[in-house]
Amino acid sequence: MNEQAWMTDNEAAAARVLLAGTGLSLTDAARLTLELKEAAGRGRTINALRKIIKLGEESLARSRLSVSVDKLYRIFLEKKEGWRSRTERDYKQVMRRIGEQCPEFLRCRARAVTHEQVQALLDSVFPTAQQRRKGRAILHSIFSYAEKRRWVNFNPVTATTTPRVREKEIVPLTLEEVRRLLAAARRCEAGLCLIPFALMLFGGIRPREMARLRWGDIDLEENVVRISPYNSKTGGARHVTIHEPLRELLLERKDRIEAPGSGRELIAPRNFDKRWLRVRRNAGWNTGENPWQQDVLRHTFASYHAKFFKNFHLLQQEMGHASANLLRTRYLSMSGITAESASRFWNAAIVIRDN
Description:
Elements: H1 9-19, H2 26-40, H3 46-65, H4 69-79, H5 85-101, H6 103-107, H7 115-125, H8 129-148, H9 175-187, H10 194-203, H11 207-212, E1 218-219, E2 224-227, E3 238-241, H12 244-252, H13 254-258, H14 272-282, H15 296-309, H16 312-319, H17 324-331, H18 339-345
């Protein structure tokens, strides 16, 4: 008998004692040892084999900590606080769409999801680049949460490609169109939409930000509109300069701004979206031949501001952009804007009733 190839009787007996109750035979133990030695490669010492076993134990423990993608999403949603209703709605819409078109993805263990799976999901579920971009951002946020909880080893969304969205140029309003809207806002709904409209057009304030503004946020002495972190889309506070046309209109409501107790009252009237739609229709928009361009007021503000003041840094601050790149690539369009028209846009005369 070859002593190097076979155990002694004493070694075999000791091995059987160690394996008692494990359900493994001597042959099974020998096979596992050979597999470990193959995995260790050159490091075939007992310490190398122990390290492999330790790593395997840690990997197994982590895998047991993982959850399904669906459960991960539900826990993530429960833990998030202070979300605005629109943000929560976006998450629910994206995940509902994934659940309807690719339910097997939600059943996957989060730790087992690969970036190839995520890429295939984005390409199949979301037909446009804009939708894929939003879907990717939402999934990335959810898996980042899982990474912090150690439910995944890495975020599989990070390695997917970010869809390039070609921004459609939004042509700013002409001076005549501005006057038509001003006139319609004065006449319609007893002028309730005039100040909200002016804040968006002459202040570049986002519609959702404007909807949260209160009369107390307007400071005529400091000549600014205060956008608090709660009201801001990006979560940062900023001051928006009250330029001449906006100031002219705000002075018409000075009694409301300075009235005791009115500081907490919202500037936008109830059912503003419906009222504002009626104003636009009265001014000739939202028809088959003249559809309203989303965010056109903010784009108009940016374009006339850049043409007249020629200060991109100031404009970036006024609009609440973290990067000037977004401002340059998306919001500025000088189509039809001249130095003269820009000067007239920022003149208080544009808001006079009969002009």
